[in-house]
Structures are given as C-alpha cells and as structure tokens.
Specification:
The longest helix has 24 residues, at 20-43. This protein is globular. Helix content is 43%, strand content 13%. The strands form 3 sheets. The chain has a 5-stranded parallel sheet with strand order 5-4-10-8-9, with helices on both faces. Strands 1-2-3 form a 3-stranded antiparallel sheet. With 394 residues, the chain is α/β, with parallel strands linked by helices. The protein is built from 17 helices and 10 strands.
Length: 394
C-alpha cells in the first residue's frame, strides 16, 4: 500500500527564504513607494488619466467587465488620495475654521476682512473634498463633453468659461495667511477636470490666473466688495481675451460698428441686500456701455451663462445694463453676440432653455459659429450636471 501523501503546508510549497540583503532591499522599496506619493504631491499636482475613458475603451474592446470594475476602484482610490493628501486637503484644513472665525456667516453670506462679503457656497466649493462632487449622470465632464459633441455636429465650436468664485482670487480678504498666494484657489479636482475636458476636445478658457495676476500686480479689486460678481473692468478683460480666441474661427466681415461710452452707476451688492434688505445704494462703479447697430441679426456667437453673464447686462441685478459680458464681447469682436443666461442656472437650466427654444422654433443655431458657455466655477462641484439633448436637426 502506497504511503499517504504528506499534506503539511511546508511540504506542499516550501517556505520562501529571504536573505538579509534582499529583505533590506524589499523594505527600502516599500518605504520608497509609500513615501513618494506624498512627497510628489507636496511638489505639485499629478495629472491622471480618465478612468471613465479607460472603462469605455475596455467595453468597446469586449472586455469591459473586469477592467471597468478595476477602473472604478482606481478612481475611488485616487479620489481618496485627493481628499486626504493633495493641496485641496491642505486648503480645506486652512479655510475650514475661517467659516466660523472671520466674522461669521449669515445665511449664504460670509463676512470677511475689511467688510468684504463672500457667497458662502462659493467658499464651500473650495472646501469640499473631491469625492463630494455631484456625479449625476457622470458629472460635469460627461455633460460638458456631450454638449460639445452636439454642437460640433451642427458645425458649432464650444468654449467653456468657468467664472472663478470671489474667494478664489481674493483669498487674502478671507484671512491674512493667504496674503502671499500666487495661484487661484480652485475647486476640488479642477485641474483634473480641465485635463479631461481638453483631452476630449473641449476648449477651456480659465481666466482665474489672469484675474489674480491683475490683483497682485495692480493691487486692485477684481470683484465687487459687497456682491458675488466680478467688476466691469474684469468683464472687459475677459471679453477681450475671449475675442482673441473666437475671431480666428469666424467667417465673414464685421457688419456695422459697436462703440462704447462711460456711464456711472451707483448700487448695492446682492450680498449686502441679503444682509440688509433695505440697504440704500452706497458705492459707484464706472461702466462702458456698448451700443451697436439696431438691427444686428444673424449673430455668429451665442453666449450662454448665469448671473456672471447677466451682471451689467440685466439691470434687475442692480448694476445697470448694456455693459455686461455679451456687450463687451460684441465690442471686441465688432459683431453681434446673442445672450441666453439664467441667474443660478448656468450648469443645466440654460441648456434646457436652449433645447426648449430650439424645439419651439423661437431660437436657431443657424449661422452660429461659436458658443461660449460661462458657468460659475463653484457649480463644477455643487451643481446637478444632467445630460440635455438638443432637438434633432431634421
């Protein structure tokens, strides 16, 4: 009778013997791996691939199940890193206590230094960790990229314009510790979102670095002291840079002439009105009101946006009219610009309004060559980004 097999573990698979030299190398490699991430993170941001794109490519190749699951796990792991180890975490730890220290919050208004008022959701968008970003139907990347594809099918080019939150370019007015800041305080994951959008062909114009540079070099305010929005000089500068991007894409010569004239407007900001509903206008700003041909039809540029677009265009916001982003853009282009903007609805509602008007025949994209989509940067992490289908071209 044959002897019974020896089933002891050390007989089935002999133990691995590691010498002292090899052990030291392994320990050193392990320590290097766990230390290199925070060290690299402290030096600068790491641009990573889109795991959504990885999963989609795997599915197209017929092997999406395992790879898609792996991609999702990798993305969750990266978000955990972003939440706990990147500059955003340092920012949250620095800014977080300010919400209760710099004068307090009253509703949606945060009282900063020197009586500056900040929209609390705007500051909150800088504090939110990456994993808290709204991901309805895939989040902003899929919504923006999908909108860009629908426009491209109609021969229209999209430029995304994220309007920076006030706190992003005036952080020193939240706390002295940010007096030496040389880069805008962006919302969580913004750099990665920008890279992903540009990777799928979406043109992004982020004016925040230029706005902050102007603040640092000229020591001038870029935003209104008691209002959510940017000053008219900043609107003009943004429109001028946009025009430089748009002009090479336009065909045909300018028709008519757009001119500007200065107008003084006295008002009170939306945040001051929130704190003091009966507050009287108390400070003045100088607007450059734009006037063009009375019959400026067939606009080659459509501007979509929210209150950052409407301010100085819609006098219901308290700062006059005829001098907002659409008007300044028309002046620099010397061409008509059509405006469709909804206060607080630049992420999804404005696309829904556009789709409804196209379906009803009250608006057309015929002749439109460029769409500028202005959206408040805070909405990249706070808004409900839903896909919106434009009506068929048939």
């Amino acid at each position: 009778m044959a002897a019974a097999p020896d089933l002891r573990p050390d007989r089935i698979m002999p133990p691995t013997v590691v010498g002292p030299v090899t052990a030291r190398w392994l320990v050193g490699a392990f320590l290097a791996i766990i230390l290199v991430v925070p060290l690299w993170d402290a030096v600068g941001p790491v641009e990573s691939p889109s795991y959504e794109a990885l999963a989609a490519a795997a599915s197209a190749a017929g092997g999406g199940g395992l790879v898609a699951d792996l991609a999702a796990r990798m993305e969750r792991f990266e978000e955990n890193l972003e939440d706990t180890s990147d500059a955003g975490a340092r920012l949250r730890s620095a800014l977080g206590p300010l919400v209760s220290r710099v004068g307090g919050a009253r509703g949606d208004v945060l009282i900063g230094r020197r009586d500056w008022l900040f929209l609390k959701p705007g500051v909150d968008s800088l504090l939110l960790p990456a994993s808290a970003q709204e991901k309805t139907a895939g989040g902003p990347v899929q919504a923006i990229a999908g909108f860009a594809r629908q426009l491209a099918e109609r021969g229209v080019h999209l430029i995304l314009l994220p309007a920076p939150t006030k706190a992003a370019v005036h952080p020193r007015l939240l706390a002295p510790r940010f007096g030496g800041v040389e880069a805008p305080l962006n919302v969580a994951r913004w750099e990665r979102l920008r890279v992903e959008l540009e990777a799928v062909g979406v043109e992004v114009y982020d004016p925040a670095p230029e706005i902050l540079a102007g603040v640092l070099e000229e020591n001038k305010a870029a935003y209104l002291i008691d209002d959510t929005h940017w000053r008219p000089e900043v609107v003009d500068a943004v429109a001028r840079r946009l025009a430089q991007r748009i002009t090479p894409r336009l065909t045909g010569a300018p028709a008519g002439e757009w001119i500007r004239s200065p107008v003084e407007v006295t008002g009170v900001g939306d945040q001051r009105r929130t704190l003091e509903p009966e507050a009287a206008p108390w400070h003045s700003i100088s607007l450059q009101v734009v006037r063009g041909p009375d019959e400026a039809e067939g606009a080659p540029v459509l501007l979509l946006g929210d209150s950052f677009t409407n301010v100085f265009s819609d006098d219901r916001l308290g700062w006059g009219r005829g001098a907002g982003l659409a008007e300044q853009l028309a002046f620099h282009l010397q061409r008509p610009v059509e405006r469709l903007a909804i206060d607080g609805g630049g992420a999804t509602e404005v696309r829904q309004r556009l789709a409804a008007r196209l379906a009803a025949g009250t608006m057309s994209l015929d002749g439109v060559q460029v769409v500028v989509w202005q959206v408040a940067a805070r909405e990249l992490v706070l808004a409900d980004w839903r896909p919106v289908a434009l009506p068929s071209m048939d």
